[in-house]
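INPUT
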Amino acid sequence: MPSPADQTASGSGAPLAHRLGRLDPYWWLVAPLLIVTIGLFLVPLFNILLLSVTDPEPGLQNYERLATASAPMRVFMTTLRICAVTTVIAIVLGYCVAYAMAHLEGLHQRLLLVAVLIPLWVSVLVRAFSWLVLLRDQGPVNDWLIGAGLIDEPLKLVRNELGVVIGMVHYLIPYAVLPIYAVMRGLDNRLLFASRSLGASPATTFFRVYLPLTLPGVFAAMVIVFVFGLGFYVTPAVLGGGRVVMLAESVSVAILQTVRWGYGAAQSVVLLVLTLILIGIMGRTVGLKRGFG
Amino acid sequence: MDRDLHREDSLALVKDLYAKGRVNRRDFLSLCAILGASAAGASLGGRKALAADEITISNFGGDAIKAYTDAWTAPFTADTGVNVAIDGAGPLPGNIKKMVDEKNVIWDVSDGDAFYGLQLGPDYLEPIDYSVVDPAGFFDWNKYPLSAGNYVYSYVLAYDKTKLPEAPTSWADLFDLKKFPGKRTLWKWFMGMPEIFMLAAGKAPEDVYPIDMKLVVEMVKSLGDNLVLWDSGASSQQLFLDGEVVMGNIWNTRCSVLERDTEGRVTWTWNQQIVSPGAWCIPKGGKKLDIAQKFIASTQDPKRQITLLDALGNGPANPAALPLLTEEQKRINPTSHLDVGVIRNEQWYAENYDNELNTWLDAIAG
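OUTPUT
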């Protein structure tokens, strides 16, 4: 129901003071953040956009190069492919962990939560190098497998896309677990009892009732994991063995080494637009709002 | 107010210690943080805060900070009273461009490759003043209007004796997977790599340039899964230490260290080395041009360059140093083996690095 204030303000001849009066005081709480965001984020972002069409000379040649050369196209495809694979694996594994966390009690649940959170506090660089040490040809994993007689040749676990995916999944799993877990915790368990008491098997209950109800959390997790993954820099650089170049690294090459800032900026803009489009598509098709509560 | 004064005084002290090398960079940064100042504001950036008799030079960090101090900056300070701070942040061309664009030039003198002078150009670099810097103290391939050779390094064929039937002798052997099976390592960032493809394909040293990139792509793909890329000197060393590769094209500076650390298991050949000119440059907009030029001149001293050779394996950029070398120093010095090498063509890189680096990254991803 509209409040009297609303009615006054929406009147066409309402004085300015009244309109300002509509500005909820809560806005003041966000004002500092808004100013910082505009000043330190949106303005530089606009500069990047500008750079991409002005450096080294005005025009769209940076975008033309992105669209026509084969190297940047491969970088884009590699980035999208790795992010997609990573997202699927992280979501499946994350769903299992979240499910366990939601159903464990007391100490066990807290232990699991800590186990999920602790990796978040370890530097991404340390984690990448740890994986490299563990998984390389002469590393403990291959040594053990060869020693056990399971394989003759070391498995190619790092310095390729597999290594990058392993490293990224490890990094991103907590970001998959937490949104899914939040939705699972908020679920009304009586719905499951109702399903069982109406004669559905545990499997049917899971697939027809539990899974659909937790999907919003899954979709939210998917967006977070995927978008996060698009910007990965250290993990692919270390675990890809130099052979997996993703977008962030490609931008860094253009900025630092070849000093083609306009070209680097154009790649950043394309990444940004791509991300926004993906979020848009997901938002429309799967009802992102429900996921983010 | 008093507190602020005390803080400023503490900052000045920390800065001084840092400049004298008594506090390392990490401690310096954390001390700045404790004192509530950003490092940029305290010493690295704020020119006003600096004493008049201090300059900052950049290099690529690690062991090179101590080595540069011993070889170059400490003697310079002793001679002139000018303190020299070394910032090991890694002066890639993009970092220099950023500083100049932002009119916040921290590095009075920057380490780098000779081709920076050609790549960045006169909008970003000050000309070297060859009335201060001795024009005779160079080879004819490491002296440029905007960059002046400070040392010479090279890309050489390193190999693990225990993992190969016989010692490889030329780049053609690196591509011979039948005779020399096993993984090989090349530099991810391309420079010093395409030359070896041309030599392996049988081109004469004088016909290496212009590089035939089609051939490079074809040949690098032929290595398939046997190719491992190194992306830092340390990683190239680690690959050999761990026995993950049997041979590769790595910096000579890492080879002598590897030979020592592996007790001769890993060694190298100078044959067909790709000789590369390291060089000083002066980012445009620095306030202490005179001192910068004098500092560069001081680093030409043959003895100081030999000190650096002993510490890091970086070869003297001044030919006058060559007759002074001992046999052991000659053994690890790239400029004592120029007869079997190819000089990297800085002009080719200045013109083609942007495009061909991308071609290369695309090819090695395959």
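end of record. Chain A has two domains: 1-54, 65-291.
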